[in-house]
Amino acid sequence: MQTKPAVAGSAAFLVIAPGVVAGVVPWWLTGWQAGAAWPAGVKVIGGVLIAAGAGVLIWSFAHFAVEGRGTPAPPAPTEQLVVAGPYRYVRNPMYLAVLAVIIGQALLLGRPVLLGYAAAVGTAFTAFVYGYEQPALTRRYGAQYQAYKRAVPGWWPRLTPARTKPPA
Asked: Which of the ends of the chain has fewer CB neighbours closer than 10 A, N or C?
């Protein structure tokens, strides 16, 4: 896939998938109305999580389009295994970013219902990664993915970037 279609496809998927999971559903659950009066520091942490999550999400999607020449959507996968940018720190930055946005919203708005929603989303992400994504990546990229999997943790980011080779 060429870069422009990959960017367009990734942008569309960004709006559709994370946009619904981290935007539409939290709005549906809360109407963006503040709930409990949590301390200001908790709200600040929530804002930081939202900003950081959104930034990592955009960074991750950009790498899928430019480095991988594809999208995160299973019907239009990348041509190359994506191992740069946020993927040097953790294998699942998009999922973690979406969870950060949802948890950030819970803290900022003082809405515990979003913490429960984040737990449900996290469970679904984990099931998808282990049940579909990792086996599919192993089939598609073989030894290259296995080496990457050994070098980069799935869910708890490294403090220093892994030295990953660009795809062959």
From this structure: C
Interhelix angle 143-151/134-141, rounded to 10 degrees, is 130
CB 113 within 8 A of CB 132: no
What's the structural domain count of the chain? 1
Q: What is the mean pLDDT of each run of 10 residues along the chain (168 residues)?
A: 69 84 97 93 98 95 80 78 93 97 98 98 97 95 95 95 67
Q: For residue 28, give the amino acid letter.
A: W
Both tokens assigned to 33 = 């109305």
Domain extent for 44? 3-151
Question: What distance in Å separates the CA atoms of residue 107 and residue 87, rounded to the nearest whole number?
Answer: 27
Handedness of CA 69, 49, 108, 95 (dihedral sign): positive
User: Is residue 162 in some structural domain?
Assistant: no
Asked if 78 and 17 touch (Cβ cutoff 8 Å), the reply is no
Question: For residue 56, what pLDDT is reported?
Answer: 96
Report if residue 37 sits inside a domain.
Answer: yes
Query: Tokens for 111?
Result: 């809405």
**CB atoms near residue 14 (< 10 Å):** 21
Confirm whether 97 is domain-assigned.
Answer: yes
- Identity of the residue numbered 136: A
